[in-house]
Amino acid sequence: MNNFDFYNPTHIVFGQDRFAELDTLIPADAKVMITYGGESAKKYGTVDKAREALKGREIVEFGGIEPNPHFETLAKAADIAKAENIDFLLAVGGGSVMDGTKFIALAAKDDSGKYQNILFNGFEPVPATEALPLGCIATLPATGSEMNMAGVITYNEQKYPFMSPLTFPKFSVLDPDLTKTLPKEQIANGVADAFIHVIEQYLTQPVNAKVQDRIGEGVLKTLIEDGPVTYADNDDLDARKNFMWSATTALCGSIGAGVPQDWSTHMIGHEMTASFGIAHGRTLAIILPNVLRERKDKKHAKLVQYAERVWDITEGTDDEKINQAINKTEAFFNDLDIFTNLTHYGIDDEGIDRIVNNMEKMGLTALSETGDLTLDIVRKILVATK
Amino acid sequence: MNNFDFYNPTHIVFGQDRFAELDTLIPADAKVMITYGGESAKKYGTVDKAREALKGREIVEFGGIEPNPHFETLAKAADIAKAENIDFLLAVGGGSVMDGTKFIALAAKDDSGKYQNILFNGFEPVPATEALPLGCIATLPATGSEMNMAGVITYNEQKYPFMSPLTFPKFSVLDPDLTKTLPKEQIANGVADAFIHVIEQYLTQPVNAKVQDRIGEGVLKTLIEDGPVTYADNDDLDARKNFMWSATTALCGSIGAGVPQDWSTHMIGHEMTASFGIAHGRTLAIILPNVLRERKDKKHAKLVQYAERVWDITEGTDDEKINQAINKTEAFFNDLDIFTNLTHYGIDDEGIDRIVNNMEKMGLTALSETGDLTLDIVRKILVATK
Q1: pLDDT at position B234
Q2: What is the ipTM of this complex?
């Protein structure tokens, strides 16, 4: 395996009935901004329960953080946080709210007058030295944002990833009961998102990192088993817990430590979300099968391992195993009612041009763990996905 | 799965040639005490390399921390740390040095005049509010101390565990090359120690914690594959890396999150070390097979899972699978030249009495995840191990 750094100081508070502990997790004298998205955080009482647990503290609410949160919305929140002298941010929601709150945390301590500069560091850490501390009440198992330092923000109709060790949540409360009111579609997208977070770190080139590989395979198997159960049955608490912890484990750093990472599917998916508004997890599920088919030779050894260990395919030649594994992966998404063809989403040849052209504008011209997935190959993948 | 908290803020710096980074990991103005054990840390140049990397800082050395480190030795180190106004502790060594340095970190900020009080909290965190910060250069993959908050100290000829969130190492440098000078016996003990750390968290009662189970199984399989390779072949760097990362992963908290934990084998093993000076990892390997045989019914479901998933035993009845898995576990230790009978270590009936009596004195009368492993059962296990 390659040299690596692993650092993840987020305190996870996992389980039912943990709300009251917010009182000990946030300093008693902190003025808190509770951030959230749409109506559900209010409607289902989550924001109120948080207020109740934080009794005695001054609270400011900032709602309306949209999916794929917009720079303008978050800039406004940061301005309010500054004006109100906020000490602590509490994100109540899914990946968009958590990612957005990480951005607010950095922007609230940025006096450059150009919050957008936070976004232009690619996969390098933001060169900030200060951020507001933040905590999360995670309501949607999907992005893993509750236990990592990264976020993705929409700016000028493009999605920009950013990261900073300053934006690790101080804590994240993961209460499986909070996910019970989610629309089914979001469960499906969350399963796909978590699954592909593992895949992008695992399905690359072998570097004999056995522990990392096996953690990845374990999370994939758990998602295959308990993702569909959670999707189908709202009352299976065991499955819901395993799905929730899988999504967090998928992107907390342990699977990607010391191994090559791909992230092509994410880069293509981000553009599909930015241009066509398709939910993030769904874009990944649409794209992944043909990314794997296209990169079969590059990823040969790991694909065989994936087929054997994750899908228990033991018969046939290597190529047959690989094809079966990719087909099973696609069927897994389809069984979650995720269509994996572009036509279903109204993306035609012109749409494909738009995706490829926008990726070019973003400088995303040499993707994958080997840096040789060009835009011509991206186009080929998209055409195959029509 | 059960509710749980997971928190582990240690920064892991894994890989070859990372020594120079010590300079950025420890504050530039810190006065540092480098702690180490016997001669090897000096002889093989590790202490000197650390000094070189920390150039410009005032350094105090404290060597001579013995295996199963003694209270008196560590109290002396804490007194020196106070007198010298040390700001940062750097442990260079294996579990004993790292555990001992955690104790020094707490004692150096303890003005009660009774450092031993640090030891009397059982598995509850030490009620300290301050500790010196510490970092580790881990030279022996085994205890996992490099990435957790716990330690074990010898006081009055008994082994006392202690833990505090204040004693998570700020960082741990894990350089596989540093382990190449270890005596073979210590590699074998380290493999057994790491293996049984997983077992004590994994082989209990099922609570449907799929991610945790699969991480545990992944670490066990890796130890089964790469432990013996590291033992036999000093030059297989890949295996050595996997062994090293397995040992750290085994006890960093991810396997034990939200599941019942046993630790009986450790409690019996500690007494064997205290009374007979047998190395820690070795005591665990001696005891474990008969703990499992004795607790076959209690642990039935998990033992079947262990047999099938870790040892790939698919034929036979459940009981046959369990027996095979336990026998394979014992053979695994034996193949590392660890004898698993008490007679080999000169422990006779009188020795067994001594172990049981000392455990009684320590109040260790109701062990295991179900709290019903009595001293009568401990005796039975020891007699079966004669």
Answers
A1: 79
A2: 0.97
